[in-house]
Target: TetR/AcrR family transcriptional regulator
Amino acid sequence: MSGFARLRGQHDVTPPAILEAAFALVTERGLDHLRVEPVAGRLRCDPRAIRDHLGGDEALAEAVVGKAVGDVPLPTLPGDSEAWQDTLAALAAAMRATLLPLRGVARRVAETISIAPERNVLVAYASTVLRLAGHRDPDWAAKLFVRAVCSEISLDPDPEGDSGSVDFHNAMAMLLGGLAVTR
Model:
């Protein structure tokens, strides 16, 4: 019996516990370095317990990305068609606050958004906001918005500081201005 197997009963190894440990490792090391074994070490369990719940390294990374995207707080939908820019600006700020500490997650979202944009809650929400605003192609514009926001988050030179916030704010102003023109 391995040392891990003896320790397995000491902790409740559930998907939420696995994701909590994985989030901590992604914050420290980045999504590209996320592996099942270090998560198991943090939980003091056999790596097979994680594979049984979530699968291997790539499935674990996808679960982290999915939970991170789901953790972004969605602003209240705008009451009129003129408030859409403020709503999307609030969404962008919430995305930055949630995803910036999770190194590599925003980049993964930006890179994979075209695979299944209808499954991404951020794209669906942005599409709803743009539809309410009367945008002529809200689904395409929402995908562009989420990709651009995530790309800008992933380019932040100092995720632990505040040096990128001005650049982020300026990029979002330009993005929203562009969406207004194509409306």
Notes: Residues 126 and 142 are 5 Å apart (CA to CA). Confidence is low (pLDDT under 50) at residues 1-10.
